[in-house]
Design a protein that fits this description.
There is one protein chain. The protein is an alpha/beta fold. The protein has 3 domains: 287 residues, Aldolase class I (TIM Barrel, Alpha-Beta Barrel); 102 residues, no CATH class; 110 residues, Alpha-isopropylmalate synthase LeuA, regulatory domain (Double Stranded RNA Binding Domain, 2-Layer Sandwich). It is 38% helix and 19% strand. The strands form 3 sheets. It has an 8-stranded parallel barrel with strand order 1-2-3-4-5-6-7-8, surrounded by 8 helices. A 3-stranded antiparallel sheet has the order 9-10-11. Strand 3, helix 4 and strand 4 form a beta-alpha-beta unit. Helix 3 runs parallel beside helix 4, helix 6 runs parallel beside helix 7 and helix 16 packs parallel to helix 17.
């Protein structure tokens, strides 16, 4: 990276907007939503959706309540054209839903687009051309006047063909593509030139879409651009001002919300933000942000898990586990303090203690979107040592020492990753048993006896080593120390016990105890072991052998397979 990035990069210029109003406004209603999953979202997929997948996703969007759905770029390919025709000819479009199609300002493409729409009930024809200085200079090599002429001619070609769509409710939309990087005065000028052709009225509005095609500034600058247009453009009452944000600076949601405060009426985006580069606007997030403030989003997201399932199946994309509202882990608490606060907050809500939702760490009730809060830790390949340790302790009373957590956590994660799925508590306990409790090679304890006089203890034990049984003995300042001496005398590598902990696993006459012991050799190698027995002393000796066996079999880490 450059030590002085200012030698290569420059800040985006601010908008001259005295007395801006958007910072003091608040949202009170949902915008008009337009899904572009089937077009913007589809073109960003490594493997575009096939017709069956597009049909399934289209039906899901309808079920969600979208009244405007951009279905494709019908002039781009025969597949896109055929999909349009299938939607229309098979009567798959509800009467109150408008399909939107995108087209560049080229006559042959406009002709093909109009052909694809014959017989539809409600359509939006979306015309666009690029307007930013970089696009004018690098891509087109044209002046402002020449770029404006392209937009005007495209608008005329569409206007001339509208009689061929008699009986169809047609609305027209124009986008000065790369609006956010275009000089604001020129964006206004070219938009008004298109308006001169289409002549919108308050009763027959034109959609003016103002894309944040590439985020080049902070979201407050985009809000200033939107408010400036809304204040200064001619015949604002004849326009539906629309937003289309991307996420290059990871502020697509913020830019949209501020753009709505700035006066926009409509929003384009995709369900979970799929789109070019870092993605399009995430409509689900903006809609549920409105919902958590008591505003009806005018979308049915009551079964968000099912919506996500269709989205992932059709697109091949995945919703990240920490994705707002929809991620697998957003309603699962790993922290004990979080769990305590949520539990108390849910109890207060259940008791009718408050008129409005105010549960710590939960911005909305998960049940409202078909989800549930889960206090129990779920372990998968994303889980950390804390989650693994919590699950063992909360379900089985296995209280792993911190250092043992650091050793077992990666083992558990590698194993779960190899399985490729989440594991239940019983499976995780089984893994711990196989790794620490059950191994009996090369050393296995058959019998143990210890005598102690003050600080001198002597042990005698019967052990099996590599299948051969022998008697061993040793002295030390405690039973464990005496057992270590006996093992080293019998040929075990020299080692010492550096950490020891034990506790009961259950109550009653058949109560078991579990012991955890960490050993370290002279060359610094360290391993943990664990042992379980109704006799706490025997549990400790078994833990010593567990650590020794793991030390002498370092490749004994689980390699996956069935739990």
């Amino acid at each position: 990276m450059l030590k002085n990035p200012a030698t290569k990069y420059r800040p985006f210029p601010l908008i001259d907007l005295p007395n801006r109003q958007w910072p003091s406004r608040h949202l009170t209603r949902a915008p008009i939503w337009c899904s572009v999953d089937l077009r913007d979202g589809n073109q960003a997929l490594a493997i575009p959706m096939n017709v069956a997948q597009k049909l399934e996703l289209f039906q899901t969007l309808v079920t969600c309540g979208f009244k405007e759905i951009e279905v494709g770029f019908p002039s781009a390919s025969n597949t896109e054209f055929a999909f349009n025709r299938r939607l229309i000819e098979e009567n798959r479009i509800p009467d109150d839903v408008s399909i939107q199609v995108l087209v560049q300002a080229r006559e042959d493409l406009i002709e093909r687009t109009v052909q694809s729409l014959v017989g539809a009930k409600r359509v939006v024809i979306h015309l666009y051309n690029s307007t930013s200085p970089a696009q004018r200079r690098v891509v087109f090599g044209k002046s402002k006047d020449e770029i404006k002429a392209i937009a005007v001619q495209g608008a005329r070609w569409i206007q001339e063909r509208l009689p061929r769509l008699a009986g169809t409710d047609v609305r027209l939309q124009y986008s000065p593509e790369s609006f956010s990087a275009t000089e604001i005065e020129f964006a206004k000028e070219i938009s008004e030139a298109v308006m001169d052709v289409w002549r919108p009225t308050p009763k027959r509005r034109m959609i003016l879409n103002l894309p944040d095609t590439v985020e080049v500034a902070m979201p407050n600058v985009y809000a200033d651009q939107i408010e400036w247009i809304c204040r200064n453009i001619r015949d604002r009452e004849a326009l539906t001002v629309s937003l289309h944000t991307h996420n290059d600076r990871s502020t697509g949601v913020a830019a949209t919300e501020l753009g709505l405060l700035a006066g926009a009426d409509r929003v384009e985006g995709t369900l979970f933000g799929n789109g070019e580069r870092t993605g399009n606007l995430d409509i689900v997030t903006v809609a549920l942000n409105l919902y958590m403030h008591g505003i009806d989003p005018q979308l049915n997201l009551g079964d968000l898990n099912a919506i996500r399932e269709v989205y992932e199946r059709c697109t091949g994309m995945t919703v990240p586990p920490r994705h707002p509202y929809a991620g697998e882990l957003v309603f699962t608490a790993f922290s004990g303090s979080h769990q305590d606060a949520i539990k108390k907050g849910l109890a207060e809500w259940a008791d009718g203690g408050r008129p409005h939702w105010d549960v710590p760490y939960l911005t909305i009730d998960p049940a409202d979107i078909g989800r549930e809060y889960r206090e129990v830790i779920r372990v998968n390949s994303q889980s950390g040592k804390g989650g693994v340790a919590y699950l063992l302790e909360s379900e089985f009373g296995i209280e792993l020492p911190k250092e043992l957590q650091r050793e077992f956590g990666p083992i558990a994660n590698d194993w779960v990753d190899a399985l490729g799925r989440e594991v239940k508590g019983e499976e995780l306990r089984g893994l711990f048993w196989r790794e620490y409790i059950e191994p009996n090679s090369p050393w296995e304890l058959h019998h143990f006896h210890v005598d102690g006089v003050e600080k001198v203890f002597r042990c005698r034990a019967s052990v099996r080593r590599n299948g051969k049984e022998s008697m061993i003995s040793g002295e030390g300042n405690g039973p464990i120390a005496a057992f270590v001496v006996a093992l080293v005398s019998a040929g075990a590598p020299a080692f010492e016990v550096v950490s020891f902990k034990q506790h009961a696993l259950s109550a009653g006459t058949e109560a078991s105890a579990i012991a955890y012991i960490q050993i370290r050799t002279a060359d610094g190698q360290a391993r943990w072991g664990a042992g379980v027995d109704t006799n706490i002393q025997l549990a400790s000796m078994k833990a010593v052998l567990s650590a020794l066996n793991r030390l002498q079999s370092p490749a004994a880490k689980p390699a996956g397979g069935n739990a």
